[in-house]
Write a structure and sequence with these properties.
By secondary structure, the chain is α/β, with parallel strands linked by helices. The protein contains 9 helices and 5 strands; from the N terminus they run βαβααβββαααααα. It folds into 2 domains: 23-161, no CATH class; 165-235, no CATH class.
Length: 236
Amino acid sequence: MKKLFILFISITMILSMHGYAEGNSLGVSLLNEDLNVQVDDKHMRMLLENLVLLPDDDHYDKESALEMIKTISQINPTILTFLTENKLKVKLFNGKLTDEPSFQDLKGTVPRGWNNGLTWDDVPGGCGPTLAVAKIGASQTGMGHSSVNLELHEIGHLFERNYQGLRNNIDYNQMWKKEAPKLMPGRVYFTDYQNEFFAEAFAMYYYGKNTREVVKQVAPNTYSLISKIENNPVLL
């Protein structure tokens, strides 16, 4: 079935580490890009400038990129601070995922769980150990994925991979098994893979008031977990 509304997948995968040490080598820092970012809070702007990378060339949809940056600014500063202090990066890219330096080895390969004839060349986002990437202009559901928001989902992956408080956490494991079928009924990818569930719950939590309320009402333990992480002074 050749539908763009495919089951979203951002596998926790082993990526080439080439270029990871220096995040700016993978793109242009927002700090050095002449974009009119509408963020009044100076601390938030600093966090975004240290987190976000943009394409090396100037031929991308700047309006869409700005909208994505605005969406990222909805994430709690505590979490963004954790990402920047751990030298993690978020790249907004143009073109194909597999044209990005750290994803070139995935050209022509099929993501796990896919049987629809598509390959990594068709995927609009991904996440490695220190880098999350999201295609400019592909934020919304149906643009090659089924997440509520592409960039938030990928950042959810990036945080989950690096925040040790979620690793080998028995309570977190039980929470996922109990609440994933309720929050995402019939979406087996999120019930089969814990990291995918967290990334999507994270995206719903930060996307807007309505989606956050859904998390609160349907998956209260997951809601409480993210809220506690926001207020964790250890992250600051």
